[in-house]
């Protein structure tokens, strides 16, 4: 292991980590609400490891397995209703970023029973009941971040809940990702890549986070051949998981930046998976970035000889050939981000409306393989 990690979440990383640390459930609570998606947690071994650990500590549990991708506030409300009914005193999220984020939001609603999907954004400094996170994708880093990204159908947007909800413990075992298919592996790996890069090219970047970003990128890069060839070893999977968790620690300190702010519109309006939604904008984003020294560092750490070569790899990994938007859509999405300066604040350079529009336009309207 080649990194130090200081986040409020107690991280247990490694093979069989749940089994090896099941006594850690002794003190966290008595009745768990397990929050997950419909299928994968049952198939990849994560749920069964958790149930064995809970049984060994004599804990009660109930399962809410209705979390969809990009979880909606409606689903979160339904999960919290069950949690309140069974008097859950801790929540375990198992899955990709969607169940982990839903678990965080549900923990908040259980602890604040009057909260509704209408009032949740207007209240500040809320606390939830303890959350345990078990990631089964190597991408979001949600297991160590304070964010919960939800789909708000009233506002027609994907957005962060705006509360600070760090999981109390995270059990991270890359074995759970071994059956993740190649498209999903790439989509999620690109999310981790975008967290590392946006944490690095960031107004809040410090010497400490820069070191962390460079190390995370190096570890991520060790799996790059496997990602490109579509054949990943156990070690590749472990490297992706490690870099994803490190990337989570980086964005928990620095936040993400423009591609995330711009990508949410593509996920909400076009159904583009989260990692792809960010990274399909990356080539124009990196090209428009004025501090070439940092961009060149990224290219060098990944072992490419030019930005152009990195761009070719990004195109292969994001596979956006069938993604298109119109000029009107590009304008509408640019208006959305331009009018929400919060989404621009982490970008360390001046950027104009036209430059933002051009990122959408050149990536998705006028890229040659689209429309
Ligand atoms: P996801 O939406 O959680 O899951 C996508 C799909 O992958 C689901 O169909 C899921 O199936 C399946 N899946 C999950 N683990 C699997 C496994 N081990 N094997 C096979 N299939 C598996 O995907 P995600 O990319 O991890 O999460 C995206 C969400 O996280 C977005 O909402 C994004 O905005 C958010 N996010 C949050 C943060 C944060 O810091 N909080 C950071 C980045 C992104 P099941 O439904 O059956 O489980
Ligand atoms: Zn992300």
From TrEMBL:
What residue stretches are annotated with the Fe-containing alcohol dehydrogenase-like C-terminal domain?
Answer: 187-362
User: Which classification does the entry list for the species?
Assistant: Bacteria, Bacillati, Bacillota, Clostridia, Eubacteriales
Tell me which family the UniProt entry assigns to this protein. Belongs to the iron-containing alcohol dehydrogenase family.
Which InterPro entries does the entry mention? ADH_Fe/GldA, ADH_Fe_C, Alcohol_dehydrogenase_Fe
Q: Which Gene3D superfamilies match?
A: 3.40.50.1970, Dehydroquinate synthase-like - alpha domain (1.20.1090.10)
Keywords from UniProt, A to Z, are: Oxidoreductase
The name of this protein is Iron-containing alcohol dehydrogenase
**Annotated GO MF terms:** alcohol dehydrogenase (NAD+) activity
Keyword Oxidoreductase belongs to the record: yes
Under Enzyme Commission nomenclature, its number is: 1.1.1.1
Q: Which organism is it from?
A: Clostridium sardiniense
Determine the domain of life of the protein's source: Bacteria
């Amino acid at each position: 292991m080649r990194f130090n990690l200081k986040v409020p979440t107690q991280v247990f990383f490694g093979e069989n980590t749940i089994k090896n640390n099941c006594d850690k459930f002794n003190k966290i609570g008595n009745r768990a609400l397990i929050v997950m998606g419909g299928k994968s947690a049952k198939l990849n071994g994560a749920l069964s490891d958790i149930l064995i650990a809970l049984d060994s500590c004599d804990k009660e549990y109930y399962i809410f397995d209705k979390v969809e991708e990009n979880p909606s506030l409606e689903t979160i409300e339904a999960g919290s209703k069950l949690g309140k009914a069974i008097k859950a005193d801790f929540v375990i999220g198992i899955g990709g970023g969607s169940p982990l984020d839903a678990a965080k939001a549900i923990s908040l609603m259980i602890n604040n029973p009057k909260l509704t999907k209408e009032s949740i954004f207007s209240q500040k400094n809320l606390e939830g009941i303890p959350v345990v996170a078990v990631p089964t994708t190597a991408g979001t880093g949600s297991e160590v971040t304070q964010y919960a990204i939800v789909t708000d159908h009233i506002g027609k947007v994907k957005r962060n809940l705006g509360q600070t909800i760090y999981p109390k413990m995270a059990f991270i075992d890359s074995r759970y990702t071994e059956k993740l298919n190649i498209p999903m592996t790439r989509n999620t790996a690109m999310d981790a890549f975008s967290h590392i890069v946006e944490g690095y090219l960031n107004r809040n970047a410090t010497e400490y986070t820069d070191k962390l970003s460079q190390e995370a990128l190096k570890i991520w890069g060790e799996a790059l051949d496997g990602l490109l060839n579509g054949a990943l070893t156990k070690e590749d999977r472990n490297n992706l998981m490690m870099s994803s968790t490190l990337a989570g620690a980086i964005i928990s300190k620095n936040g993400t930046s423009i591609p995330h702010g711009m990508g949410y519109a593509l996920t909400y309006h076009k159904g583009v998976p989260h990692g792809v939604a960010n990274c399909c904008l990356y080539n124009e984003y990196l090209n428009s970035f004025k501090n070439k020294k940092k961009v060149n560092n990224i290219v060098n750490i990944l072992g490419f000889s030019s930005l152009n070569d990195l761009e070719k790899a990004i195109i292969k990994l994001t596979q956006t050939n069938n993604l298109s938007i119109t000029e009107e859509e590009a304008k509408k999405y640019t208006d959305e981000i331009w009018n929400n300066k919060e989404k621009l604040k982490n970008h360390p350079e001046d950027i104009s409306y036209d430059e933002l529009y051009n990122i959408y336009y050149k990536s998705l309207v006028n890229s040659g393989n689209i429309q």
